[in-house]
Amino acid sequence: MNIDNKKAAWRALGLFLVLMLAISCIFYAIMITQGAMNLLSVTGVMWSPGLAAVLTCLILKRPVASLPWGWGEWKWNWLAYVLPIGYGLAMYLPVWLLSLGGSGFGDPNALAVFASFITTSDSPGAIAAAGGILMTATLGMAASMSRALGEEIGWRGFMVWEMRKIMPFWAVGLLSGLIWSLWHWPGILFTDYNAGEGTPALQMILFTLSVMPMGIIYAWITFRSKSLWPAAILHASHNLFLQRIYTPLTAHGEKTHFYIDEFGILLPIVSLGLAAFFLWKAKKEGL
Prior knowledge:
By secondary structure, the protein is mainly alpha-helical. About 75% of the residues lie in helices and about 0% in strands.
């Protein structure tokens, strides 16, 4: 790539980041004022990267259709859906089986909520709870995708492609992951998007160490599929299974927060392992 093209890529990347930050700050200001996240403000902030990508295209007179909208091969989308199920189980099974932090499987309140999707009985059984979990894991993807897509249009629909023009794959993965994690910091620090207990500084460190390596996985599946949809599905599946299924199912002990969810010690370990694997694959495949 010649110098002019690299300068154009840096300009596009800088413009996108400025617009993304400006739009995000509007919704973060609302959330910080309230001290909590609600559905509308969360949707707004999650769509900020996507809106910034579209505006960047319009300002630079690029067709919005130039973003990688194509659905691509189904194998990438199925992989994106099942991957969080797998690494989520790798995280939570030890917590449940070994009672890490005093934890256990089957929080009664969560099971009752899942069962309520199936029955109104005062004494729902395990089958009703399992049915509610299955409904959440499938139909729940629609709601999760409606928000994750907004982020991924920006992160993996625009940002990583501009980065790839000016830096190697490993740098694209790590830098995009770092930007992605830093973008979450206001929510962690000033709203209820955190574990709700424990040390805030440690939670931010663990969150960053989990999200930054994930940038490599998202970049890999984006470049291999040549589409933004697998990243959106991966993002939606991650949020759905970790935040709406595995974490609620965990009966909490005194130190449970130190191990689970996006603010515990186990997700960074899993993320680093997966990042190393996909970095190896990327090198082998010539990405």
